[in-house]
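Hi everyone,

Forwarding the result from last night's run.
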Amino acid sequence: MKQIIALGGGGFSMEPENPLLDQYILKQARKTTPKICFLATASGDSENYIARFYQFFEKQNCQPSHLSLFNPPTRDLESFLLEKDIIYVGGGNTKNLMILWQEWGIDTILKKAWEQGIILAGISAGSICWFEEGVTDSYGDGLEPLKCLGLLKGSNCPHYDGESDRRPAYQQLIATNRITPGVATDDGVALHFIDQKISHIVSSRANAKAYKVDYDKNIKEIELATKYLGS
């Protein structure tokens, strides 16, 4: 079973007091203390970001670790990653993430991990990276399409309600055929894919949603059924 959990926003980095999404990710490993590895490549392996990862996950029933490409733990990155249960990718600059992963062969390793049943998860850049394309602000001036790993079909737009320019920019890119149609997620929403199909959509915020966005003479935005993980 191949699994990807793509967060449009939320998790420990955006909602440190709201553990719902990250605890959902841990549960999917179906192990008492799953091994979870954080890749903060998109943030330049920010020490602060990595520290916040440990602050949260050291309090959970799991074995947290991280992989820094600026200070690699070993030369054998493949063995290091393929013995994990969950690989969690942080946010940041997706363009730089893709380039560094390709240079280090991480893109190939992650595909192997996915095929072997290791859960791939991530937020923002760590969400769009799994799709064929994503909407990114990596270039520093507006939002643009970016080719990604292609493990999941179509495109992805995170922060759909969290940043005012995301929704109109994504719809305009689809309408002008600059990006393939796809799925958008509000902050606090996670898309849980099993074998490339959405199995569950869950949220840590009561009113947060996901949307299928397509174009047929006009933009079509269809709200997708989302389960709130809170009480």
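The longest strand covers residues 197-203.

Cheers,
N.
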